[in-house]
Amino acid sequence: MAYTARMLITRAYYLSQVVARGLQVPSDEQITDGLFLLNALLQFKSTDLREIPYFKRDALTLTAGQDEYFIERLIYVDAMTYNIGPVRYPMAELTRKQFFDTARIDGIQSLPFSYRVEREKGGSRIYLYFVPQGNYELKLSGKFGLTDVDLDTDLSLEYDAFYIEFLRYQLAQYICSDWGATLPDETKTKLRSMEDLILDVSPPDLSMQKLTFFSGQSPWDWQAINLSKGWFPF
Description:
Helix content is 32%, strand content 23%. With 234 residues, the protein is of the alpha+beta class.
């Protein structure tokens, strides 16, 4: 059964008690305001990855000579690899300072072995090093944000019933704040309980993996780059 944004907004008004269930229905103006608040809520939720319990697999084709790629709605990357045929190759995620503020030779086309993800408006941009020398298939696991819906958007196509219910409680809180009303104590307690549970549904993988190419001095000099083009036996 479809669960539209209009249904969520209407039920959130009833939960907030700004509109009396059985006695009133939200007006067109209230529904419009509710849609604005729902989109504001969805956009703000992308700032707290813990409250988005869904990971999604995505793929794109790397273009030879291109080291930047923008992916819409992507807000977090947990794992990233690329394929050459059936063989999958890992990459190391670097910090911003490691990727953008360390000595290296730019413009070398080879197998990418490191990446950096930067949030931008509407999604995230992925930076790769080395510059891909071929059209490889890149695969990632990450979190994507649904940040712009209309009244007829079927939320059940994106979210489970438990998460839509969580959104209803949060939207009720937004509505109360917008109207200068007080969220009922029982509803407030239930919302706090739901927030605690959501954090444990699907947390990011925070384990660390050390990627060692060689011991001792770094091999990324002119000789290694020109002779191997990144093909090292690991």
